[in-house]
Each structure stands twice: as C-alpha cells, then as structure tokens.
Specification:
- The complex is a heterodimer of chains A (378) and B (198).
- Chain A has one domain: Cytochrome-c3 Hydrogenase, chain B, CATH 1.10.645.10.
- Chain A is 45% helix and 13% strand.
- The relative contact order of chain A is 0.19.
- Chain B has five helices and seven strands; from the N terminus they run αααββαββββαβ.
- In chain B, strand 6, helix 5 and strand 7 form a beta-alpha-beta unit.
- Classes of the chains: A alpha+beta (378), B alpha/beta (198).
C-alpha cells in the first residue's frame, strides 16, 4: 500500500532552482498561519497562504445559541477590536427583531467602537514593529494602548473582551465623570501618537523596509475586493462610516484618509492616520452625546423573528468593512450567521503582492495587509 | 342619567365603526413604502433583461435580493458586473436547507467605483442540489464558479466548498482552505453535522 501525503503537505519539486519553504504556523513572521512560498534564490516566485490553524467554528456555534448568548463568543475572533467585530451582528439582530435603540446608546457605541479601533491599531502597530525588528516600535504602542484600555475598562468592566454591545443598546451606562476622563486621555493619546511620526514614520529604517514593496494598484485593490486600510492606501476613497453611516456616524464629521502609493508604507501609515481621525470622532461624540437618558431597551426573553428573514449589515472595523449575514427562521437561535471578515477578504491580495518580492520583505508586506489570523479563520 | 349618558356613546360607536373604510386608504400607502425608487430601478433592469429567469427576493433600502437558478447565475453575474457596475463580492455564504433538499449560496456584491452604488449591496442567491450522503467534489452538489466574473470570490468559494461541499465548476483552485487536510467527516456547516453534546 502506498501512502500519499495529503495535498498541502507534499513537497512539490518544481525545478532545480526553486525551493518550497513553509513559513509558519509557528513562526514570528507568519502569525497563526502557514505561508507556503516558493523561492528562487532570494525571490518569491509563488505564494500559497494556508490559514485555518485557529479555526474555531464561530459560525457553527452561533446556530446553537440565542441572539443574546451569541454575544460573548462572536467577539472572540478579534479580542482587541471586540466592539467592532460584534457591531454588525448587533445591528443585524436589531433589524431582525425590530428594536429601536436609544439615542444615547448610539453615541456610547460610537465612542466604544472608536476607542476599540485605536486599541486594535496600536496592537497591530506593535506587532508590525516586531516584524520589522524595531523594538521601540513594539514598546511604545503597547504602552500607550494601556491608556485606552483603562478607558474601556472604566466603561465596560473588562480590559479586552467587553461584550458591551447588545441588541437594543449597550450593557451599562457610562460611569460618572467618564466624559472628562475620556477627553483628557484621548487628548493625551493623540499628542502621543503624533510623536510616532518622528520615531517610526520618518525613520529611514522603516521607510527602506516598506517603501515601494508590495505595491497594490488601484485596479487590483478593487478587483480583489480588498477593504479598509489596504483599499484606502491604494487610492480608493471608501469608508463605510462615510458611505453607509450606521448609528450616529451621519451626524459626525468623519474624514477619510486616502493615500495613493499602495505600497507597504502607505498601508502602515493609513491606520495611524485613522487613529487621529478616531480621536476627532470621539471628541465630537462626547460633545453631541445626550447627557442623560436610557442606554438599553429591555428585550423579551428569547426574542425571535416572525418568519424566514435575512439581513446583511456591515460596519467599518479597525481592519475594514466587516459584514454579518444573519438568516433567521422564527426560532430563538439564528438559522445561520455568516461573518464576512476583512482579514479574510484582504488575504486574497497576499499571493499577488508577494510574487517577485524578496523573501526578507515577506513579513512587512504580510503584516501591512492589516491581517488578523484569528479573525480570518473565525 | 347613566343610561342616557351611555346611549350617546353607544350611538357614536357605530359611527366610529362606520369609517372602517380605513383599510381602503391604507392600500395606496403600502406601495410607496415597500419600494425605494433607486433599488427598484436596479431590480427592474435585471427583470427586464432576464425576465422569468430571475426572481426578485426583496427590495429594501440599500439591499436588493435576486434569486437565480443555477444555470443562469453566471450570465446574471456578468450582467451585474458589466451593465450595473458592481465590481467586487464582499461575502459568499452557504445556507443549508435540508427540508428543501437544497444548499443556497448567497453572494453579497458591492461596488467601489460607482459612487451611487457605494451604499448598495446586491444579494445574488442561487441553490445547489443537496446530497444526503455527500462526497464533496464528486456528487451532484455543484454550481458554476463566479471566479472568472468576480476575482474576489476565490477564497470565499473555497471556504463554501469545504464547509458545505458545494463544488464550484471551473474554479481554478478547489482545495481546502481552513479545514485540516485529514478532515474525513461531513462538511461541518451542514445542518446534519451536529456539535457533540448539543
């Protein structure tokens, strides 16, 4: 009996010159995924990403729990961005169940999701520092991130996995004096991230590692269906907070950051600009937020829809457009929950960006895609 | 006195009851509520072109749903790309309907280039035949791929293949993506694959 290796494990001999190399899944330059690259000397000729090492079956689990008990596990794919990853599910459940959200809750949600966006981007930036061998770039964002984590802890009671958004509003009202503390911390945070320009973004080392590597043209960015910072770094002006405003984003002034270069440098800079925009949004929201009022509509136990209905809602998360498709069939549990996650959508660009790139540039190109392996696997 | 005071309301009640022509004025109200004009225009273009082959699932604000048979899905997708200016697929979801003996595949299609479509999502749904004992890739659960129409479906269709066993004919790379290479059970998102202990 001959034993054949399953596809993906077998080494393919292509050519005398070409070598197949498995990067990951346990490798500091790949995250929780394997990237199979074929190299000719130092140059990558083909790349085959192999995600799935942290697949947890979130979508299957969601079919066994009701609309409320789905909340804590659906935010697990990206615990640093847990409010945003839950947002489309909550918006979809509200539309299915016909729930009106109080005005103050909408503002609290916007503040929480913008804080979460900054927390996520800071973590992503810290890991980018590791990938580039720039340890200050790891230490600074990881430290400054604590400011906002403290704010979220005040607001929700948990440092990272908040489970704060529920269909009908948010779980708890803001603590007393939160507005002042938030304003102070956010102002300090903004001052702090502006200093990053001198240390990271104008740093010749970072520029030489990222400038003109992994260039994604505007047409390709659209054709591949990329989203978020990857799309905006390639010159497409598309941000769901502006294009399809949800909750109270239509009452706030949101500026979209677009860069035309489409290289790793642009993709690493756009999220940083987004953080400053987030600080602006938080300040506006704090000012416009109703000072008192309810933040949550009380739901009936086990709410359900009347018949077979479906809804597709999307929000702009820290990584890009995050959609949630919910099918409901008049039971307390959803019939099907599909999360269309930005990391998974951006992954399709990776093989095309790495072709012809040097192997040493692989980590910087890969991480510039704003990719979170756990989210892509769900 | 009391009887007298009760009487006038009793008289008034039939008067109130007499205007139940209320439902009649409601009828003209209903059509403008259900059909947002711009979205209606999109579905009208599709119905005009394909006639009976497409069925309009719903027309809501920013969302239009079109149900298509599996023979026509490729032509409809090409029309959506070339004539309606949608340019990328955001999400491809499988939904298992054991009671209908079908697996539905739903494409959520959006547009970056056409600014009037920035808010819009076109939901294109088609159904594949479902097998009771699936042999993924080698049974009748097949659909034509949309990879040559929308490049962005590449990984999404691979995911639907491994999670539902829907084989996409013509997809250049029909391997597993997320599941382990040695997975030998049912496609896990089918309804007959049960979680242990539930």
């Amino acid at each position: 009996m001959t034993f054949t290796l399953p596809p993906g494990l077998a080494l393919k001999k292509v050519d005398e010159r070409i070598m197949t190399l498995n990067v990951g899944p346990q490798h500091p330059g790949s995250g929780h995924m394997r990237i199979i690259v074929q190299i000719d000397g130092d140059y990558i000729v083909a790349c085959d990403p192999d995600p799935g090492y942290v697949h947890r079956g979130e979508e299957k689990m969601a079919e066994y729990r009701n609309y409320i008990t789905n909340i804590p596990h659906l935010e697990r794919p990206v615990i640093h961005d847990s409010c945003n990853v839950l947002y489309p599910y909550v918006l979809g459940a509200e539309e299915l169940l016909g729930i009106e959200v109080p005005e103050r809750a909408k503002y609290v949600r916007v503040i929480a999701s913008e804080l979460n966006r900054c927390i996520y981007i800071m973590y992503w930036l810290a890991i980018y520092g590791i990938f580039l061998g720039h340890s200050t770039m790891f230490m600074w964002p990881a430290g400054d991130r604590e400011l906002l984590i403290d704010l979220m802890e005040k607001m929700t009671g948990a440092r990272v996995t908040h489970a704060h958004f529920v269909p009908g509003g948010v779980r708890n009202d803001l603590p007393p004096n939160f507005e002042d503390v938030c304003l102070r911390q956010v102002n300090y945070f903004e001052k702090r991230i502006k200093e990053y320009a001198a240390v990271f973004y104008d740093n010749p080392i970072l520029i030489s590692r990222t400038k003109d590597t992994g260039i994604l043209s505007r047409q390709d960015a659209i054709r591949y269906g990329t989203t978020g910072s990857v799309l905006r770094a390639s010159g497409v002006d598309y941000d769901l907070r502006v294009k399809e405003p949800y909750d109270v984003y239509d009452e706030l002034d949101v500026h979209t950051n677009v860069m035309k270069e489409g290289d790793s440098y642009a993709r690493s800079r756009v999220p940083w600009l987004d953080m400053m925009e987030s600080c602006n949004i938080i300040r506006q929201a704090l000012q416009k937020m109703p000072k008192s009022g309810s933040v949550r509509v009380k739901l009936k136990p086990n709410p359900k829809t009347k018949g077979l209905e479906s809804v597709y809602k999307r929000v702009e998360s820290g990584r890009g457009s995050l959609g949630c498709y919910i099918v409901s069939d008049a039971k307390p549990e959803p019939y099907r929950v599909k999360m269309s996650v930005p990391s998974f959508r951006n992954l399709i660009a990776l093989p095309n960006l790495l072709r012809g790139e040097k192997l040493g540039n692989m980590p910087s190109v890969y991480w510039s895609l704003n990719y979170w392996p756990v989210e892509a696997d769900r | 006195m009391s009887t007298e005071t009760e009487n006038p309301p009793a008289d008034a009640k039939p008067e109130v009851k007499s205007p139940p022509p209320k439902p009649a004025p409601k009828k003209p109200e209903a059509p403008p509520v259900e059909l947002p004009a711009f979205e209606k225009g999109i579905s009208d273009k599709l119905v005009e072109k394909f006639g009976d082959k497409v069925e309009v699932g719903f027309v809501k604000e920013d969302r239009v749903r079109i149900n298509v048979g599996r023979e026509d899905v490729h032509d409809v997708a090409e029309f959506i790309r070339d004539e309606l200016n949608y340019d990328h697929v955001e999400s491809v979801s499988g939904v298992d309907y054991p009671q209908d003996n079908e697996i539905e595949v739903v494409y959520h299609i959006g547009s970056y280039t056409e600014s009037s479509l920035a808010r819009q999502i076109l939901v294109l749904a088609t159904r594949a035949q479902r097998e009771t004992n699936p042999i993924p890739g080698n049974d009748a659960t097949k659909l034509p791929t949309l990879r040559d129409v929308f490049y962005s479906v590449e990984f999404h269709e691979r995911e639907v293949f491994e999670m539902f066993g829907v084989f996409f004919d013509g997809h250049p790379d029909n391997r597993r993506l997320l599941l382990p290479e040695d997975w030998a059970d049912l496609p896990p998102l089918r309804k007959d694959f049960a979680i242990k202990g539930r």
